[in-house]
Amino acid sequence: MRDPRYDILFEPVTIGPVTTRNRFYQVPHCSGMGHRYARSDAHMRAMKAEGGWGVVSTQETEIHPSSDLTPSNQGRIWDGADVGVFREMTDLIHERGSLAAVQLAHNGLHTANRLSRIAPYAPSDAVVDIDDPVQARGMDKADIREFRRWHRDAAIRAREAGFDIVYVYAGHDMTLLMHFLLSRHNHRTDEYGGSLENRLRLFREVLADTRDAIGDRCALAIRFAVDELMGSAGVERDGEGRDIVAALAEEPDLWDVNLSDWSNDSQSARFSQEGYQEDYTRFVKQVTTKPVVGVGRYTSPDTMVRVIRQGHLDLIGAARPSIADPFLPRKIQEGRIDDIRECIGCNICVAGDNIVAPMRCTQNPTIGEEWRKGWHPEKVPALAGPAAALVVGGGPAGLEAARALAQRGASVIIADAGTEWGGRVSRESRLPGLSSWARVRDWRLGQLRTASNVEMYLSSPLTADDILAYGIAHVAIAVGGRWREDGAGRFHRVPLPFLKNGKIVGVDLLLDQGSVAAGPGPVVIYDDDRYYMGSALAEQLAAAGIDTTYVTPTPLVAAWTVNTLEQARIHRRLLELGVKIRLLSALADRAADSVTIRCVYSGAAEIIPCEVLVPVTARLPSSELWTALQARREEWLDSGLTRVERIGDCLAPGTIAAANYSGHRFARSLGALAETESADAFR
Ligand code: ADP
Ligand code: SF4
User: Fold this and answer.
1) How far away, in angstroms, is 427 Cα from ligand 1 center?
2) Fewer CB under 10 Å: which end of the chain, C or N?
3) Which residues of 530-540 are buried (b: 16+ CB within 10 A; e: fewer)?
4) Residue 171 and residue 69: Cα distance in Å, rounded?
5) What's the distance, CA 421 to chain centroid?
6) Is the CB of 649 under 6 A from ligand 1?
7) Which entry of 30, 343, 349, 361 is annotated as an active-site residue?
8) How many degrees, rounded to 5, is the angle at CA 163 between CA 159 and CA 167?
9) For the chain, first and last CA: distance in Å?
10) What whole-number distance in Å separates Cα of residue 20 and Cα of residue 627?
11) Ligand 1: does its nearest atom lie under 6 Å from the Cβ of 418?
12) Do residues 52 and 330 lie in contact, with contact meaning Cβ atoms separated by under 8 Å?
């Protein structure tokens, strides 16, 4: 059972009129589900309650059509018709012994109201902060009265929906209440603008309105960003951040404090360590007697205990750690520390919100599938009878397939050709800033090594002969993929024969051997993959002192990392390392010591010194084993093979999250009716 040194984490905490059973607090986080996939969202949150999170919060929840974040899948509590879906959520959370919190939000100039077509609201006339050609109206007194009424009515609906904690949200530079606080947005000359006390006025009024609306049944929480990491141009922990907390110190029942904007709040592991917000939020408890919750990608129970004992926080806030492991509190409670599946800080979950799709997680293949597929993060149905499975390849797909198959009771053999487990995860975790990614491998190895029904073999490249000779009924081929070296990708859809006019070093060689494989340079990295790989290699080479130029046909460095909130930091880091950057440029020609690039719009050419070219464009599935097995398909049944399937990157290269999901899905589908992929299954 529980180690007594973690007892403090299981103490109840009183939050105004309600009491949470422990100090584990799932703070509001987006899910990419929200009002469009409300039932999926409700059951995902309920799973956190089952896993022991004492408080479970919604994501930001629009209070009115004038805060319409279309097409984003946020929560929506516009009127009474929205109450029912939240009632289902709060019932599920309460049945599991937790408190439910709702983050009411009016997004002010952060939204363009694409559906409602209402002119957005702002303290002063301003252009909205997304790229739509839309301006917000500077609110007059009647607008302010209306906004207060909408917020009050939403708080009443939240109480009716069964929430225990109701948020007033001034964070992330995303809500009207924060816009009023910030002098860069608030240029008013009336009693709502100018001095800090004036800029605070609306916040105070809405706090009072909300308190009045929720009465003494619900707690009132403030979510506030104490620092925007933009110096004196924004809120600072030693300036107005502190002044605002001091001014409102005793007004709420709970302070939920963090950094703004979202990219600062949800920093990825590539740019921050566990506890990265402590220096900013530590002061809050010195200023208020109310309980304080904060975040910092906490996954270690020892760190959590330290944070509480040092008087920095009262409640351990978590978004990502609760996504990667909804059962983290229960595992600490049950003394199963080694079973905790730690968040790797990759922000694939965050991308779900940004691409407007249900979130995915690199560590937790079941997140978002709790209701739609009925998947539980901890339980996989036991097999009806004995079964044997062979998994070929021990990357993320193979390891997860083997782990979940073993959990179901199958006798599992997993073999990998290499000398270490983890496949791409092991190799990529050696890139700068990505060491925590090895947790994907390590958690699964930990589970496999304690299972009695698993045999594991390294240095075991299997052939079609081997697989037929084993005669194991269920076979998962999880042999991964290789990076292309011919330049074909999104921009150039066909191979570029001229690349061979000079030396090419492929991504796989660099991953295997590190920067020495590139020699002294100069090196040109051509990134048409658009996610992390091109920039991570550029970072690695430049840090080794190699003259490196990063070329991409897109307008942004590592363009897709906009979705993981890393893009600006990646670009900045490459600049700091002296990497030369050429945007909107495609490959045009190659000589032994140079490469010619062309502007994708004008065609203007530039010749760049280049001894080594690294094409980072796309991957090809490793197909040899599959092809050999296909050629002998008529032997499968006689050899005892009933099912042979490709999973993960050897079916279609993708993210680590996709490989993990693919392995998990294979294990779940063993002995089950074929999973339906009809339209209905996705509603
Ligand atoms: P995925 O992301 O789909 O899990 P990876 O590329 O990470 O794929 O992992 C594939 C693993 O398969 C690598 O560790 C590789 O060594 C292993 N592998 C490749 N071919 C074979 C084979 N014929 N037999 C056993 N293991 C193999
Ligand atoms: Fe953590 Fe990545 Fe999962 Fe998000 S997707 S919870 S950052 S492991």
Assistant:
1) 12
2) N
3) bbbbbbbbbbb
4) 16
5) 24
6) yes
7) 30
8) 90
9) 41
10) 57
11) yes
12) yes
Residue nearest to atom 6 of ligand 2 (CA): 320
169 catalytic residue (yes or no): yes
- Residue 678's pLDDT is what? 64
In Å, what is the CA distance from 524 to each residue of 48, 370, 487, 535, 612? 46, 45, 13, 11, 6
What are 540's two structure tokens?
């690695």
Q: Please tell me the predicted confidence (pLDDT) of residue 671.
A: 79
Is 601 among the residues known to form the active site? no
pTM score of the predicted model: 0.97
**Mean pLDDT over residues 352-361, rounded?**
97
CA-CA distance, 59 to 492, in Å (whole number)? 40
Among 265, 325, 528, 649, the active-site one is: 265
SS3 396: helix
From the CA of 440, how far away is ligand 2's center (Å)?
10
How far away, in angstroms, is 612 Cα from ligand 1 center? 27
Alpha-carbon distance 267 to 343, whole Å? 12
In the chain, count of helices (H) and strands (E)? 24, 29
Query: In whole angstroms, how far apart are CA 399 and each of 95, 392, 619, 642?
Result: 34, 10, 21, 21
pLDDT in tens, 303-346: 999 999 999 999 999 999 999 999 999 999 999 999 999 999 99
Alpha-carbon distance of 444 to 394, in angstroms, equals 10
| Long-range contacts at 533-537 (CB < 8 A, ≥ 24 apart) | 533/428, 533/507, 533/616, 534/558, 534/616, 535/561, 535/570, 535/573, 535/574, 536/270, 536/428, 536/431, 536/432, 536/433, 536/434, 537/431, 537/507, 537/510, 537/614, 537/616
Ligand closest to 360 (CA) is 2
Q: Of 169, 280, 526, 532, which residue is the catalytic one?
A: 169
Q: Is 553's C-beta closer than 6 angstroms to any atom of ligand 1?
A: no
Looking at all shown ligands, the one closest to residue 268's CA atom is 2
Q: What angle do CA 465, 470, 474 make, to 5 degrees?
A: 105
Q: What is the pLDDT of residue 15?
A: 98
In the chain, pLDDT over 70 holds for what percent of residues? 98
List phi, psi (to 5°) of 242.
Answer: -70, -40
CA distance 313 to 253: 14
Is 664 catalytic? The answer is no
| Whole-number CA gyration radius for the chain | 27
Mutate to test the pocket of ligand 1, among 416, 651, 661 (most ligand atoms within 8 A of CB): 416
